[in-house]
Input
Amino acid sequence: MPRRVFWTFPPCIEAFKHCKPLIFIDGTHLYGKYGGTLLMAIAQDGNTNILPIAFAVVEGETKEAWSFFLSYLRHHVTPQPGVLVISDRHKSIDVALNADDSLWKPPHAFQAFCTRHIASNFMTHFKNKDLKKVLINAAYSKSQWEFAHYFGHLRGENEAITKWLEEMPRSQWAQYADEDRRFGHMTTNISECINAVMKGSRNSPITVLVKSTYFRLREFFARKGSEAFAQLQVGAEFSQTLMKAIEFNSKHINTMNVY
Output
């Protein structure tokens, strides 16, 4: 049995060229007779469709395993400049992304952390639900003055909290400082995608895993392709998600504040 296996499909590689320049990465344990860990990279298009673009089965979430996955991902699926990688704060991921020979470092690519995981780590260290909400508000703040308000609240309550946060570059966890690379994505949606794509297959041998992802993605591309074609047939120029945002903003423009 091979120690590690990476796979993707040509439609996934082509589709990523038309997705937002960001990916979500995470791993999940495989159970049953075969064991191991499944690593995945997920993208999202302009109509909020979640798309798995690469997979690997490895021995565990080690630095070597993540380096293997990220290297193949970069070379074969996401070679574009400026891609943002959103993940949890797993030490092995951070080490792999920032290794001397990594192609995932600025200015070629960028790194950001999932707010949900940061909040979970916060609770492990400080165990304060009220301040966790303040932390989340700080992370989601879209302007520097709004961020300063919540960050100042945290500093006033416990200076150790702000020291802990300052161990991370703000661009990696605070939305206002991300230079618009997140497109508003503050968490990883990987669990939902893993459950949808790998349902019933996580205790299977590698060959079955590969076939399962192939058939599920084939159905996904056929269904979403038909939906997109139907929109083009009626003359749509923009995605439905974008049109809803335009309509909402047009309706509420008189109540918006400019800072």
